[in-house]
Amino acid sequence: MSAQPVPGRTTGYEAYEAAGELLRALSAPIRVAIVAELGGGERCVHELVEKLGAPQPLVSQHLRVLRGAGVVRGARRGREIAYSLVDEHVAHIVADAVSHAREAQ
């Protein structure tokens, strides 16, 4: 009896390709910082701008990249959009990477 793939799950090399896409989406330091912030809960753009000290257009541009990669999602909250992580695993990946980088210094 052969194992059947589970719908919605990647197997074999597909999983490596998906992991590569995720890592490419996280390749910019500001995107790592955005994901780290969203690991603490949903945030609006102005909250991310204030916390990261980055210009609003830059934060919005990187949120678009993360949204396109399926890392974050936005939900309208009145006149604003609140961003959150699609999957909490990404927050753990980022936290581990930042922790590892700090240890290496």
Largest sheet: 3 strands, antiparallel
Find the count of extended strands (DSSP E, 2+ residues).
Answer: 3
3D shape: globular
Q: What is the helix content?
A: 55-70%
Strand order of the largest sheet: 1-3-2
Percent strand equals 5-15%
Overall structural class, as computed from helix and strand content, comes to alpha+beta
CA-based gyration radius: 16 Å
Mean pLDDT: 90
Distance between the termini: 50 Å
User: Given the structure, what is the number of helices?
Assistant: 5
Low-confidence stretches: none
| Helix and strand element order | HHEHHEEH
Plain-language structure description:
The protein contains 5 helices and 3 strands; from the N terminus they run H-H-E-H-H-E-E-H. A 3-stranded antiparallel beta sheet has the order 1-3-2. Strand 2 and strand 3 form a beta hairpin. Helix 2 packs across helix 5. It is globular, with a radius of gyration of 16 Å.
Task: Give a topology summary.
Layout lengths: L12 H13 L3 H10 L4 E2 H8 L3 H13 L3 E6 L2 E6 L2 H17 L1
Antiparallel strand pairs: 1-3, 2-3
Helix pairs in contact: 2-5
